[in-house]
Amino acid sequence: MSFADLGLSQKVLSAVTDSGYLNPTPIQAGAIPQALQGKDVLGIAQTGTGKTASFVLPMLTRLEKGRARARMPRTLILEPTRELAAQVEENFVKYGKNHRLTVALLIGGVSFDDQEKKLERGADVLIATPGRLLDHFERGKLLLTGVEILVIDEADRMLDMGFIPDIERICKLIPFTRQTLFFSATMPPEITKLTEQFLHAPVRIEVARPASTASTVTQALVKSGSKPWDKRAVLRDLIKEEDEAIKNAIIFCNRKVDVSELFRSLVKYDFNAGALHGDMDQRARMTMLANFRDGKLKLLVASDVAARGLDIPDVSHVFNYDVPIHSEDYVHRIGRTGRAGRTGKAFTIVTRSDARYVDAIEKLIGKSIDWHSGDLSTVAPSDDTQDERPRGRNAKSRSRGKDARGSRLEAKPEKNPQPETAEVPDVAAERRSRKDAIRNDNADRKVQPEQRDRPARNHRRHRDDDDDINTTVGFGDETPAFMMVSAKV
Ligand code: AMP
Question: Chain-centre distance of CA 330, in angstroms?
């Protein structure tokens, strides 16, 4: 089957041809003809299957008739994260290059004013995260009664992030006669209920979920003690060991607090690293991604949620700083390398307490993963159990560290562990820019003024950007040093 068989308009077909795609993917072949006929679609597909084009292309074709009115968007696409929303916008730019359509992006972390101006001029396509959309609606800047097509993308991710009440509310604000295109990688009961409530006789299109990893990816488990400084040292050794083989790599952490911490540590050790986590403002995230895509950054530290759905080019290496708790996440992570028959390497750092997660992963992928240089039997149990102070050469300076956090306790970085520093002649400037990176990361971790200004509605706090499913308890990793000193009785 070719794109020409799907019923798309000439303008859309010519843009698709220009983008170099020859044949529709299964989700595109299934969804596009149905969407063009105005039917509701329930697409069960994950990112990487070409699902974005499966709704963007028919929408463009259908939008060729009619025009936008002020504050009344004609179509609405809901995305769980800002990056996904921005990525969908890029798709509209790419495939809509022969159209004169106005696309407005309503996401958190950027000013309301510019977004309002765009709404005022009239938008054909509105791409939004649920929180920011409702904020605009409540300010009276938006009418949803003109929406003809509603797309709900990554619905299961919306569920994980607590957006379902917002989605229900938005669905009720849009006319009953609309067309709904609904996409989810999985169908938990809450999502099924949502589809039963808001979709009308949908055509169900299901695309197989990969439960296996590409055979071109070499996978390995790497033993480590369980303390953050142990894991960071293991990671640094691995990166140095792979050295020139690494073209670019993603380092996955389970929690966003660890993303930030690890990023700072890597920068401190002169690695060419960037980070992607939910507390960063939109501009910083987009810059970071662009730098990684352009090859200016070699290592990208990310959480699953921050990286999910992002169209990141094939990478040579994936490092799992943490073993993923959900085994499907392992398959997603590893899927970032070894694409299209290319080779890739995936290393997973494993501590004693990770055994059951590794078992679940091996069960899912149907094979066991080899250990890189010896299994955990060579890691002393005490490494995992005692409240360990770092040992070795720098033990003294480490134990005088300022607080209980691994990064502060770390030894001074060894000199130039990364060969790429040699490529940069102005070492002082490079160092300054690394310091800037950390300063920016610090700033990004502060509450955005827009979040502060929001009315206190508990259930909606951080809904645009909170991608951390593991809530921090108490002080979390920020526990002050004086609280860690044992009391004398
Ligand atoms: P998505 O699942 O929408 O995130 O798309 C994943 C990747 O597949 C993106 O890089 C798309 O540009 C690419 N893609 C989408 N449709 C096709 C197609 N028909 N043929 C080849 N690549 C595609």
Answer: 14
Contact 304, 468 (CB under 8 A): no
Mean pLDDT of the chain: 80
Nearest C-alpha neighbor of 81 from the set 161, 149, 137? 161
Name the closest-CA residue to atom 20, ligand 1: 21
Radius of gyration of the chain from its Cα atoms, rounded to whole angstroms? 24
> What is the rounded distance in angstroms from the CA atom of residue 119 to the CA atom of residue 287?
25
- ∠ CA 437-442-445 to the nearest 5 degrees? 125
Q: What is the DSSP string of 340-393?
A: GG--EEEEEEE-GGGHHHHHHHHHHHTS--EESS--GGGS-HHHHHS-PPP-ST
Query: In angstroms, how far apart are the furthest CA atoms of the chain?
Result: 82
CB-CB neighbours of 147 under 10 Å: 20
Q: What pLDDT does 47 receive?
A: 75
Which runs of E-coded beta strand occur in 37-114?
Answer: 41-44, 75-78, 103-106
**Backbone torsions φ then ψ of 204, nearest 5 degrees:** -95, 125
Look up the CATH number of domain 3-206.
3.40.50.300
User: Highest mean pLDDT: which of 350-364, 368-382, 441-455?
Assistant: 350-364
Q: Ligand 1 atom 10: the closest Cα is on which residue?
A: 311
Cβ atoms of 174 and 13 closer than 8 Å:
no
Give 486's DSSP letter: P
Quick one: 194 exposed, middle or buried, by C-beta within 10 A (0-12, 13-18, 19+)?
buried
What is the distance in A from the centroid of ligand 1 to the CA of 54?
A: 9
Tell me: the pLDDT tens digits for 251-302?
999 988 899 999 999 999 999 999 988 777 777 888 888 899 888 999 999 9
**At the top level of CATH, which class does the domain 217-383 belong to?**
alpha beta
**β-bridge partners, 222:** 349
Angle subtended at Cα 331 by Cα 330 and Cα 334, rounded to the nearest 5 degrees? 85
Ligand 1 pocket test, candidate residues 25, 47, 207, most atoms within 8 A of CB? 25
Asked if 379 contacts 352 with a C-beta cutoff of 8 angstroms, the reply is yes
The single-letter code of the amino acid at 7 is G
- Give CATH 3.40.50.300 domain extents, the chain: 3-206, 217-383
Which residues form the pocket of ligand 1, taking CB atoms under 6 Å from any ligand atom?
21, 24-25, 28, 47-53, 311
The model's pLDDT over 128-148, given as tens digits with 9 standing for 90+, comes to 999 999 999 999 989 999 999
DSSP 145: T
